[in-house]
Amino acid sequence: MPHGPPNVVVMIEIQGLTRRFGDLTAVDDVSFAVHDGHMTGFVGGNGAGKTTTMRMTMGLLGVDAGRVLWNGAPITAANRQRTGYMPEERGLYPKQKIVDQLVYLGELSGMSASDAKAAIMDHLERFGLADRANDRVEKLSLGNQQRVQIIAALMTRPEALILDEPFSGLDPTAVDSMADLLREHTSRGIPVLFSSHQLDLVERLCDHLVVLAKGRVVADGTVAQLRNRGPQRYRLVLGSDAGWVRDVPGVHTVDVDGATAVLELTGETPGADQILLRDALSRGEVKEFARIIAPLSEIYREVTA
Ligand SMILES: Nc1ncnc2c1ncn2[C@@H]1O[C@H](COP(=O)(O)OP(=O)(O)OP(=O)(O)O)[C@@H](O)[C@H]1O
Fold this sequence. Notes:
The protein has ten helices and 14 strands. The chain is an alpha/beta fold. The strands form three sheets. Strands 6-7-8-3-9-10 form a six-stranded mixed sheet, with helices on both faces. A four-stranded antiparallel sheet has the order 2-1-4-5, with helices on one face.
């Protein structure tokens, strides 16, 4: 059972955040919103500025310019205290028992020891760690330590979640438990921002995507919106040679291999897809005419190139 107030509606807006380290502008005028009830994936190569943006959002790092809004007003310390944050650097005490450590962290966030304990046991159960509650952290594998770190961020009845690479190091079962937990939060209106290099996972989970490259936002939208930015690609499979498609107006031929053609519509000729299909049908059998859905990894390569 999820722990947290029902139907919280929070929107976080990041506006013009900028941070320099010496000559390097690590985060350069970054703006985007993390909408209530949305899972927002934050992606970008190593050093793109994701962690720096998240740390500024959490008030752990000063900003050179820009601001963060919480439901339209400048974010406060109290708002941040109600945000479940998972830092990139994992900070557990190796010698302490898992349950004691989590109770301590819960109390720091204002929970009573008994509430904290109930939330902890529920989360340990979900991550298959209930029987390890009294083990010292150092006895856990790295992946299981990661699960404990996640519990620390999620057990405190957060009203927003900002998670720096929460899926890294998790096995597929833990990835599924984590994904379910995050969905429970978004279904109650909680905004979730998480960074990840696992694009397949981001594609599967996220409603919204922000792509950072060299400190700047290079794409911001739904996966479908990002897909529709470029030319639309189709595959045409005929019963005979497809070479004639090269001469169809408004169609750019990417590749023809015998009866199969990969095409892009240039957008210059309205209804080019219908013209193409009519032509193809008038020449004989059409086995397939379908849009090619680019994987997120391809879109990512294009926007960060
Ligand atoms: N405290 C610091 N002092 C100097 N440079 C820093 C500091 N923190 C970050 N940087 C630099 O800022 C840039 C952005 O780093 P950041 O950690 O935000 O990237 P990231 O997108 O989270 O990368 P990764 O995916 O590798 O975790 C990098 O070039 C990094 O070396």
